[in-house]
Amino acid sequence: SWLSMWMMLEINLMSFVPILFFGSNKKTNFLFKYFIVQNISSATFLTSIILLWTSELMNINNLINFNMFNFIMTLSMIMKMGLVPMHMWYIEVLMYISWMNIFLMSTWQKIIPLMIISYMHNNMTMNISIMLSCLLSSIQGMSQLNLRKIMAFSSMNHSSWMMINSTMSLYLMFIYMIIYSMISYNIIYMFNINNVSYLHEIYFMNNYNSTYKLFLFYNILSMAGLPPFLGFMIKLMSIKFLILNNMFLITSMLMISSLLSL
């Protein structure tokens, strides 16, 4: 039920906040920002559930109420996942947390919202957010030198792919999530053990042999979706599903964003 999904979101939030707190040795202002945003999005989600229940109890099944329910619920998931136009908090929070917490926020924390989206009807609000998220993240990511910001914009881009995948097939979304998690973990693990924070620091990793560096760049190219790497194959599979569902505009936007991210 929708209420059980809301409870899952709250349990997930309560379990992740301590991880964020103990996993960072910097100022904790970001923690309050994360907590407030997540609570607002959960409250918005609960509001949409109450709206749906009210409509059912009063036996009002008109299109306006259904569209309102869909719109409010979509906004709550967009806010929770940190997509456009509610993405600024996501970038700011990722700037102050550890590399391993960045990995968790980019992967594990997205699973429940994506599962909720899979039960929703695709709508214009969701499509606009997906298209803006993939394009904006690619454009802004190109001008960044801070690796945390680059990974944050990359996470936004891949989240837009996973969101549209979840509306078509939950199975496809989980395949994308697993592959993205593997690639993301490899990159973040190497950034973490080398204690790098800026792009130019990657080129000064002289303590490791060429095989180690090659493995890092292989994962970076795979995350960018360059053929014939694994990241390209899952995007190709997603594009096939999009075309079969006649989503040509979103397909074009996602492909353009992938070209920009290269």
Automatic annotation (TrEMBL):
According to its record, what are the GO cellular component terms? mitochondrial inner membrane
Where do the NADH:quinone oxidoreductase/Mrp antiporter transmembrane domain residues begin and end?
1-260
According to its UniProt record, which reaction does this protein catalyse?
a ubiquinone + NADH + 5 H(+)(in) = a ubiquinol + NAD(+) + 4 H(+)(out)
Compartments reported by the entry: Mitochondrion inner membrane
List membrane-spanning regions.
6-23, 35-54, 90-108, 168-191, 211-234, 241-260
**InterPro entries in alphabetical order:** Complex_I_Subunit_2, NADH_UbQ_OxRdtase_chain2, ND/Mrp_TM
GO MF term (any one): NADH dehydrogenase (ubiquinone) activity
Listed EC numbers:
7.1.1.2
Q: Which domain of life is it from?
A: Eukaryota
* Bilayer topology: Multi-pass membrane protein
Keyword entries, A-Z: Electron transport, Membrane, Mitochondrion, Mitochondrion inner membrane, NAD, Respiratory chain, Translocase, Transmembrane, Transmembrane helix, Transport, Ubiquinone
First-listed, main subcellular location of the protein, grouped into a coarse class? mitochondrion
GO terms under biological process: mitochondrial electron transport, NADH to ubiquinone
Role noted for this protein: Core subunit of the mitochondrial membrane respiratory chain NADH dehydrogenase (Complex I) that is believed to belong to the minimal assembly required for catalysis. Complex I functions in the transfer of electrons from NADH to the respiratory chain. The immediate electron acceptor for the enzyme is believed to be ubiquinone. Core subunit of the mitochondrial membrane respiratory chain NADH dehydrogenase (Complex I) which catalyzes electron transfer from NADH through the respiratory chain, using ubiquinone as an electron acceptor. Essential for the catalytic activity and assembly of complex I.
Q: Which family does it belong to?
A: Belongs to the complex I subunit 2 family.
User: By its UniProt entry, which PANTHER family does this protein fall under?
Assistant: NADH-UBIQUINONE OXIDOREDUCTASE CHAIN 2
What is the name listed in the Swiss-Prot or TrEMBL entry for this protein? NADH-ubiquinone oxidoreductase chain 2
Annotated organism of origin: Syrista parreyssii
- Organism lineage string: Eukaryota, Metazoa, Ecdysozoa, Arthropoda, Hexapoda
